Amino acid sequence: xxxxxxxxxxxxxxxxxxxxxxxxxxxxxxxxxxxxxxxxxxxxxxxxxxxxxxxxxxxxxxxxxxxxxxxxxxxxxxxxxxxxxxxxxxxxxxxxxxxxxxxxxxxxxxxxxxxxxxxxxxxxxxxxxxxxxxxxxxxxxxxx
Length: 144
What we know:
Layout: H1 2-24, E1 28-31, H2 34-42, E2 49-51, H3 59-69, E3 73-76, H4 82-97, E4 101-103, H5 105-114, H6 124-135
Parallel strand pairs: 1-2, 1-3, 3-4
């Protein structure tokens, strides 16, 4: 069990490290709400993050904000629940219509690894802390 858990944690850590790197290079990340932004900040993701609900949950408002920033690619990291999947689908459609490429790599990988255990991005940092305690390790060592 712990071997499988350790492997899962290593994969999640690798995904988050890559996400941090892309974020530092200026990639815009779209999440659902402010709590999701706080969770990413807790995981040391410091680049631009747009909370969709912070713009009134209006898809066109989110797309307009992304377009204003001039990015041709945006990372979608919305929740893994039904509402998150619906919002992701609508964002993909609207972004592709204005020739902005939605990056779903991180969402798909995290969803695959966490889908049964975690439905919301806002719980990611706490989830990793819980795993940390189970293994008696410091997986989040160096993460504020």
